[in-house]
């Protein structure tokens, strides 16, 4: 599973290009802002949100959207969210009904489908992607020396993961490294010497990189990023965050199962659907 991890990561220079301005950071921010709103509206599980971010970052790292064409950002966000929902949720509305939150542009189903196919092709059809959630149970068990990770620990870990993946700082790390750092941060009550021994015994991650990630999480915590400023980053639905009991982790196999969740009613508001770049406020 760790060997496959690199196949599900953005291109190596993605973070550098975002920080240097070579890639427009506002494109990623705008897309994720809408994905977070849509995810909270429908109360989908946490894995569909992680996958949405994964698809978006991998796509943007290898495909640059046309500059100055703002509707493409919205279309890409809808496509990534739709694909992630189809991968993880039991009940998924039609793609046209996923366009909630008064978006600037609303697209026909065929237009969204074409964008989905572009995303699928660009990502090499590798949609069962690994995320930090894929590894979290393994590290919680390793550090706590328990046979199974406690549900409360998984819940706190998932909350922390969702709090940090919207920013770009953690793009520096592999998903397994993030999961290890999150597990250490969550299991604060475990004696320091046991944590240190567990990190030393980690085979699939490098100790120095995990500790660097832990320090970054501490910095974010001190700045109250996860607690106050970014509370909107975590889905507001209790289904979206707390229903982690459906996550069928197996620490010995390092795999994660799907997370079926109930679905809120689809929006019934009628909106003008478009095939191309047209404002949602345009006259019919």
From TrEMBL:
Compositional bias (Polar residues): 257-268
Top-level taxon of origin: Eukaryota
GO biological process terms on file: cell division
Cyclin C-terminal domain segment(s): 130-253
Region (Disordered): 257-284
Keywords of the record: Cell cycle, Cell division, Cyclin
Cyclin-like domain: residues covered: 33-121
One Pfam short name: Cyclin_N
Keyword match Cell division: yes
InterPro entries the record matches: Cyclin (IPR039361), Cyclin-like_dom (IPR013763), Cyclin-like_sf (IPR036915), Cyclin_C-dom (IPR004367), Cyclin_N (IPR006671), Cyclins_cyclin-box (IPR048258)
Subunit and interaction comment: Interacts with the CDC2 protein kinase to form a serine/threonine kinase holoenzyme complex also known as maturation promoting factor (MPF). The cyclin subunit imparts substrate specificity to the complex.
Family: Belongs to the cyclin family. Cyclin D subfamily.
Name of the protein: B-like cyclin
Classification lineage: Eukaryota, Viridiplantae, Streptophyta, Embryophyta, Tracheophyta
